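Recap from last week: sequence in, structure out.
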Amino acid sequence: MQPALEIMMKDTMLRDLVENALDYEPSIDAANIGIAVRNGVVTLTGHVASYAQKLAAERVVEGVSGVRGIAQEIEVRDTFSKQMADDEIASRALKIIAWDVTVPTDKIRVKVQKGWITLSGTVDWYFQRAAAERAVRRLSGVLGVTNQILVSPAIAAGDVKRNIENALKRSAEVEAKGITVSVIGSKVTLEGKVRSWREKKSIERAAWAAPGVASVDNQLVLE
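Predicted structure tokens:
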């Protein structure tokens, strides 16, 4: 079989797997999602009714075996957002963040422009940054979230490196051998080869979860 034809057939099979995975996920209305696959890279287009569905679609595709990359081009078309003013969205965002006891509300600022939320401020831990984003992205009327919250380093670089490497060794989803973790200040760089897109994202999440991490440069490549 010619290489080009073989790649085309693999892409067609992968497209079917992605389509089935999206249809199977109950939290997503996949009727208006378009799927294209080229050399293992999945491009998602079309529109969904909420930002939460957009994120869920990306999460589902990450878990499909054979996916080597994702281009996320789905639009959020929330008809309810047309009836909701930005100040109302901002007020609801602040309230829902305040309900989460893990988030230091006095350190978080919220800005809303045409349904798009921008979070800013400084926190001590990455899980606080992530919790603030999770809290607001499911609100009605939200078309997107930009998380500009900074994590102030509170731990030595050597400890950050050791914590990440230990986390990778404990993870059942990760083959830690061959993964290089380097830390300069509060920035983590990941290098090496991985078996799947899902493994690449799992390693990145493990790095982000380490105390003191402010940024992650994921240079992992698929075998």
